């Protein structure tokens, strides 16, 4: 189980209320650029919330004018220092580093609970990689999205090119990747990359929190099943996905939550569901 103190974070702030965890990128003075600490803290926080069943949904936003300027220059500088020594061993070390960076965003996809992101201003480079791993995306009118890595002489390597083709048309993702141009909020909404566009950050956060609250009202088991099945079917064919659904349902479909949902409907009250079990910390 991740061991991290939410009050001692360098790059994030975390609050949990009414089964909703709100994670904020908290370095606005540095445009929320992703320094080395960020890559450690984000997956640890997300996984701890899930492992300890502290919330039923996570909302990620940021402080300041821009969501995030992406990978901080310090990360590139540290990587440059590693470009020495015997080529095969150097390459193996680089491969492990990229996999570790990828894992920071994989965590958002792998946890049992939905992750919603609410972005404003610039969503640049690594920030695009990050939000691609979320369940749903929302933005303000002034938001723009940039696959910046191409302009920096490298290929985006932390998830954008692997996840975006599942989120928008192939031709568009290729254009964005090849050119490195900005995609404005209107275009992001038109192609389905973001669910909704809002006039300002406060309006956006209020709306996204309402969506999170609606999710949190439902059976955590049912929502976890939805996330598991949608992620699975993205990467498998229909026949395999249906078979997996049947296998999942044979064990996970039990009556208590169904009976509670029906009783709550009849009695015109909110349903009360048990939380998902905490994950085992191992032996």
From TrEMBL:
Its EC number is 4.2.1.17. GO terms for biological process: fatty acid beta-oxidation. GO terms for molecular function: enoyl-CoA hydratase activity; isomerase activity. It is an enzyme of class 4 (lyase). Pathway: Lipid metabolism; fatty acid beta-oxidation. Pfam families: ECH_1. Keywords: Fatty acid metabolism, Isomerase, Lipid metabolism, Lyase. Belongs to the enoyl-CoA hydratase/isomerase family. PANTHER family: ENOYL-COA HYDRATASE. This is Enoyl-CoA hydratase. The lineage of its organism: Bacteria, Pseudomonadati, Pseudomonadota, Gammaproteobacteria, Alteromonadales. The gene is paaG.
